[in-house]
C-alpha cells in the first residue's frame, strides 16, 4: 500500500461499503495509519492508498492514542460554516480556503464491528468531511473558489505531468 497522488484514477472512483469488519480491515487500517503518520497527514481515505472501500483514518495530533478509524462513515447532520485553509496528502503543496460545516454528527463502524455515532467540531469536523468526500470521489480542489483553482493550475498541471511520467 502506498500513497497515491492526483490525478490517479482511483481518487475519482466512489469507494464501496465494507460489508463486514474483518482481520483485513484491521490490517488495512494499521497500514493506513502508518502511511498517514509518515506523510505527516491528519487524515487519509482508503482510496488514497488504492483500497477502494469506505474506511478513513484520522489523527489530529500524531499521538498514537488519538488514532481514529471510521469504517463506512456517514455524516448524518451538519451545522454552521467555517472557512479554513485546507490541504490534502494526494495534492502535495496545494492548500486553499474551503468552506465546511463547523460541526458534524457522524455515524460509523469501529474496528470491533460496532456501530457508533460521534460529534465532531472544528478541525476534526473538517477532517471527517474531507475524508468522507474522498470516499464519494469528491476532491478538495473541486471545492476551491474559481480564483483559487486558477491560481493552482500550474501546480495541478505539474502533478498531472508527474503522474504520466
Ligand atoms: Zn485528501
Can you walk me through this structure?
It is a single chain. The protein has helices at residues 23-38, 122-135, 146-151, 153-164, and strands spanning 43-45, 55-58, 68-79, 82-87, 95-100, 103-109, 115-121. The protein has 165 residues and is of the alpha+beta class. It has one domain: Peptide Deformylase (Alpha-Beta Complex). The strands form two sheets. The chain has a five-stranded antiparallel beta sheet with strand order 1-2-3-6-7. It has a two-stranded antiparallel sheet with strand order 4-5. The longest helix has 16 residues, at 23-38. It is globular. The structure holds zinc ion (ZN).
List the helices and strands and how they pair.
Layout: H1 23-38, E1 43-45, E2 55-58, E3 68-79, E4 82-87, E5 95-100, E6 103-109, E7 115-121, H2 122-135, H3 146-151, H4 153-164
Bound molecules: zinc ion.
Residues 88-90, 130, 134, 140 line the site of zinc ion.
Could you list some keywords that capture this structure?
five-stranded antiparallel β-sheet; binds zinc ion; alpha+beta; 7 strands; Peptide Deformylase; 165 residues; two-stranded antiparallel sheet
Distance between the termini: 20 Å
Order of SSEs: HEEEEEEEHHH
Low-confidence stretches: none
Summed up, the domain count is 1
Using the 3D structure, state the CATH architecture. Alpha-Beta Complex
Using only C-alpha atoms, the radius of gyration works out to 15 Å
CATH topology: Peptide Deformylase
The biggest sheet, with number of strands, parallel, antiparallel or mixed sense and barrel status, is: 5 strands, antiparallel
Strand content: 25-35%
The small-molecule ligands in this entry are: zinc ion
Give the overall shape.
globular
The SS-based structural class is alpha+beta
Q: How many separate helices? A: 4
- The pLDDT mean sits at 96
Strand order of the largest sheet: 1-2-3-6-7
Assigned CATH class? Alpha Beta
Quick one: CATH superfamily? Peptide deformylase
Estimated helix fraction: 25-40%
What is the strand tally? 7
Amino acid at each position: 500500500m502506498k500513497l497515491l497522488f492526483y490525478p490517479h484514477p482511483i481518487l475519482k472512483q466512489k469507494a464501496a461499503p465494507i460489508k463486514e469488519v474483518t482481520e483485513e480491515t484491521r490490517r488495512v487500517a494499521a497500514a493506513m495509519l502508518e502511511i498517514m503518520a509518515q506523510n505527516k497527514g491528519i487524515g487519509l481515505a482508503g482510496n488514497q492508498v488504492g483500497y477502494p472501500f469506505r474506511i478513513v483514518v484520522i489523527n489530529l495530533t500524531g499521538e498514537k492514542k488519538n488514532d481514529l478509524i471510521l469504517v463506512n462513515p456517514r455524516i448524518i447532520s451538519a451545522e454552521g460554516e467555517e472557512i479554513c485553509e485546507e490541504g490534502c496528502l494526494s495534492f502535495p503543496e496545494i492548500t486553499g480556503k474551503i468552506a465546511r460545516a463547523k460541526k458534524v454528527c457522524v455515524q460509523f463502524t469501529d474496528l470491533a464491528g460496532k456501530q457508533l455515532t460521534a460529534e465532531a467540531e472544528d478541525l476534526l469536523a473538517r477532517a471527517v468531511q474531507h475524508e468522507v468526500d474522498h470516499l464519494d470521489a469528491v476532491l478538495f480542489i473541486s471545492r476551491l473558489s474559481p480564483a483559487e483553482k486558477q491560481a493552482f493550475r500550474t501546480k495541478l498541471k505539474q502533478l498531472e505531468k508527474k503522474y504520466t511520467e
